[in-house]
Amino acid sequence: xxxxxxxxxxxxxxxxxxxxxxxxxxxxxxxxxxxxxxxxxxxxxxxxxxxxxxxxxxxxxxxxxxxxxxxxxxxxxxxxxxxxxxxxxxxxxxxxxxxxxxxxxxxxxxxxxxxxxxxxxxxxx
Length: 125
Hints:
Blueprint: E1 16-17, H1 21-29, E2 36-41, H2 46-58, E3 67-72, H3 77-87, E4 95-100, E5 103-109, H4 115-123
Parallel strand pairs: 1-3, 2-3
Antiparallel strand pairs: 2-4, 4-5
Helix pairs in contact: 1-3
């Protein structure tokens, strides 16, 4: 048995995988009806995996209040660099960035990532 055991009843989140620079630019430049949440994840990092599992297990409160975008840093590191350039938020892993149009609503890394805090911000948006 490993250190990280995913929750048994974890719902699959409707992640949009961001896999190219063009896709990333279109997402970040195009006006959106609701905020965007980016989750940057390193598939080789146990801490990142733990944070992702915890996030997915807890994420249910604001599921329809924002779009969910997922960046696999090992496969698409250039996308993370582009997000940093376009948002001004320094790259970290794991990392969550929530944007509404061009405004950074929330940015956190590692154990500072809080579903409850994101929920409050999105509900007050």
